[in-house]
Amino acid sequence: MTPVSSKLYADDVSLLMVLVDTNPYFWSSMKNTAFTFPKFISHVLAFLNSILLLNQMNQVVVIATGYNSCDYVFDSSTSSMQRAECLLEKLEDFVDKDESLSQEDSVDGIGFSLLSGSLSMALCYIQRVFRSGPLHPQPRILCLHGSPDGPGQYVAVMNSIFSAQRSMVPIDSCVIGSQHSAFLQQASYITGGVYLKPQVSDGLFQYLSTVFATDLHSRSFLQLPRPVGVDFRASCFCHKNTIDMGFICSVCLSIFCKHHKKCSTCGSNFGEARKQDPSASDQRTSDGS
Amino acid sequence: MADGKLVKRTKYKTSVKVPGVPGVLKLTKERFYFMPNDPTLTTKLNVEFKLIKGHKSSKECSSKQALLNLTQAQGGNYLFEFDSFPDRDQCRDFVASAIAACGEIGKATSEKPAVPHDEQLSATEMGRRIKLLQENSELQKLHRQLVIGGILSEAEFWAARKKLLEQSENKKPKQRVALKNDMWSVKPLSDGQTNRVTFNLTPEVIHQIFAEKPAVRQAYLKFVPGKMSEKEFWTKYSRAEYLHSTKNIVAAAAEAAEDEELAVFLKQDDMLVSEARRKIRRVDPTLDMEADEGDDYMHLPDHGLPQGETKEILEPQYEPFKRSFSQYLNQHAAVVLRGRVIDVELGDTRSVAEAFTRTYQAEQATEVSDENAYRERVKKVSQVAEIEDLQGPRDPPVALLSIKDPRDYFDSQQANAIKALGDAETGIRQMKFSVSKEEAFCSLKDSISEINSQGLIEPIISPEVALKVFNGLSQNISSTKYHLGKNPHESVLDQLPSATKNELLLHWTSIQELLKHFWSSYPITTKYFYAKVTRLKDAMSQIYPKLQLMFQEIKESVQSDVRHQVSLLVQPMLQALDAAFAHYDADIQKRSAKSGERPNGFV
């Protein structure tokens, strides 16, 4: 994995962007298990406090990833919201707002939370910090995510991942749901962060403090969990399905699950010749990326 | 050549020295004809290629004749001289293919051992093969087993490895002849009696002069052949050299005043001077030449070279005619070290001169302008003598592109497959779940207010769970560290005793080799292929029981958990052999069914 380069300034001061999954459908599904939302919040708050105690210049920003929207719920650098109560208050307001934005009455299954939105917000915040001056803490993003991947967000999420890679911000991910997240696997893989799916959800705090608490500089000296495999499958642009094999536009690299006459992204016309030979050039396997 | 015919004008000779009979050579696939231009002559030829054993040709060189020599199997030869080398080469290639074709047909029709024509191997080709075998012990083993065991012929074995041979050939670029390291190649020869002084100029010497003295080169391009002939030019040059060798600067200046062309040679080379200036600019800026002044030969006049140059004080008007020995030495050294920069035949003086000018101009073009050069120099100085504390913030360093071990990819694929199995169960559970919007949001809000009212859960984590997590994590990390990226097959092989492992690997490579030859022989079009397939099949059926026996042995000796993996290794080999046998049998049956209707021996 590519080492994350240090950005000057004291190398052990961190800016931690925590994306908390507040998808109500996901947490409803977890209600009957041992790991409930209050428990989750307790673990996360304890972790955030320990981050702030590690270095007095450390900064923590929490972004709630809702079902319809996302928002900042906590920022340790603003004096007005320095306590946990503030976070909960803000979180409550956020859930209210999220509900008012909701249009459909019920969702099949767990539904997807707006990961692409919160990732973009985190990156915007980090960009602002980068531009504030030469002295800034080292940023990283931690996704605490439980909802399954929304294939419809594929392009947006990938774009966020690549912009994070460009600005050398690692995306750590801790999956608290029952499924692995291909998006977050790729995000951590590409940006050089850590991907982890805790086996014992009760011990979330232990996982967080052991794996995700160390600053980027110290990481180079540590053996952190490495993913055994990364799911590189992509979503097609036409139906937003996750596919193993499909068609790819030779001009703009858009991915489709079926053959189209014209690329919906860039408008290139695909030739007729390949009809006789469907196994020809446009075929691809997504794992090759 | 495409229509199987080639006609060329040539001379037929009985030996190299005789002038030969001019005529026309006509080549077809089976035979060649020679018709003399003079129909009265009796030197007509009509020879079958079957009788021709080999061919030789003269080296391509402007001074030599373009000869092609066809040697007869019963001794004796046919010698042809062509007008040009391309003509000769075309005929040679045609003859080579014709001989090869005849050889194949001839051997296929005769019932002799069905080995393809063993083309005349040159010593270098042979050496290359031997070297490859020496370098690669696996290849050597295979070679010993298959070729010396008589299963494959030498040519067949190497035909499959043409690439390997080519690679080893490409590794060594052809050696290029460097310039002579001789400075005094233009030596005047005087016969002592008359006042004549002779200079001996060869193309090689001219090349050297052009390389070392750009001014002479420029003068040559300017004067020859417009103003004077080539001979006049070199005479003038020689005269200038002679004047220099006498070291009589005053006399040289006097001569130069009379003849402006001669002056070009006698004056200092302007181009060299400007080039020297340019070179000095490119010297490492941190090098302090003044600080080194006390070193070695600097205190001696003329750098300590034993050259008794005239030390008389010259008037300034003679200054341009002075030539320092060390300058000459340096220039010569620079040219020799650079090696041959042009790739032109030395015979044509003009083209040599032009080629030099071209390369010189190309160099000039790539040189940066003065301003850029200055900037570059400043940059270099700051790079070499950098004080870290005074540097501004650097750009983020670029992460190098690291191409990963492809094995990681396959391992991850395997992990994905395993994961997919596990995920399938959770997927089913998830689908059943469905709640309304109000319910979901209400429960989330309830949870938040629950925290508000009851406070955080305390303790957050029980010591037992923490220990469990900690142990699990460290185990996970250490296991991925040691097992990641390892091919599971390798580990199985490593568990076997080394003798068995080697034997297994040898079987595997030889089976692969045999199968490659086996399948490439189909469809069987000639008797030769038929014989080869039979040979290969016999060899394979010998290996088959050996492999089975070994498999049994391994099965008995190793533990049950490895057994499955070993069988995963061996089974594909046996299956591949089975497929080959089945194809062979089917082919034989088809053949025998057909041969009933056809005359015997028809292939």
From TrEMBL, chain A:
InterPro entries, A to Z: TFIIH_Tfb4/GTF2H3 (IPR004600), vWFA_dom_sf (IPR036465)
Top-level taxon: Eukaryota
Membrane found in the keyword field: no
Predominant place of localization: nucleus
Record's GO cellular component terms: transcription factor TFIIH core complex; transcription factor TFIIH holo complex
GO-annotated molecular function: zinc ion binding
Keywords: DNA damage, DNA repair, Metal-binding, Nucleus, Transcription, Transcription regulation, Zinc, Zinc-finger
TM region positions: none
GO biological process: nucleotide-excision repair; regulation of DNA-templated transcription
Compartments, record wording: Nucleus
Gene3D superfamilies: von Willebrand factor, type A domain
Its biological purpose: Component of the general transcription and DNA repair factor IIH (TFIIH) core complex, which is involved in general and transcription-coupled nucleotide excision repair (NER) of damaged DNA and, when complexed to CAK, in RNA transcription by RNA polymerase II. In NER, TFIIH acts by opening DNA around the lesion to allow the excision of the damaged oligonucleotide and its replacement by a new DNA fragment. In transcription, TFIIH has an essential role in transcription initiation.
Assembly with partners or alone: Component of the 7-subunit TFIIH core complex composed of XPB, XPD, TFB1/GTF2H1, GTF2H2/P44, TFB4/GTF2H3, TFB2/GTF2H4 and TFB5/GTF2H5, which is active in NER. The core complex associates with the 3-subunit CDK-activating kinase (CAK) module composed of CYCH1/cyclin H1, CDKD and MAT1/At4g30820 to form the 10-subunit holoenzyme (holo-TFIIH) active in transcription.
UniProt record similarity statement: Belongs to the TFB4 family.
Record-linked PANTHER family: GENERAL TRANSCRIPTION FACTOR IIH SUBUNIT 3 (PTHR12831:SF0), TRANSCRIPTION INITIATION FACTOR IIH TFIIH , POLYPEPTIDE 3-RELATED (PTHR12831)
Stated name of the protein: General transcription and DNA repair factor IIH subunit TFB4
From TrEMBL, chain B:
PROSITE patterns, A to Z: BSD (PS50858)
Cellular component, GO annotation: transcription factor TFIIH core complex
InterPro entries reported in the protein's UniProt record: BSD_dom, BSD_dom_sf, Tfb1/GTF2H1, TFIIH_BTF_p62_N
UniProtKB keywords: Nucleus, Repeat, Transcription, Transcription regulation
Residue stretches making up the BSD domain: 111-169, 193-245
Pfam family, one: BSD
Coiled-coil boundaries: none
Entry's Gene Ontology BP terms: DNA-templated transcription; nucleotide-excision repair
Subcellular location: Nucleus
Top-rank lineage group of the source organism: Eukaryota
Chief place where the protein resides: nucleus
Keyword Transcription found: yes
Family that this chain belongs to: Belongs to the TFB1 family.
Record-given protein name: BSD domain-containing protein
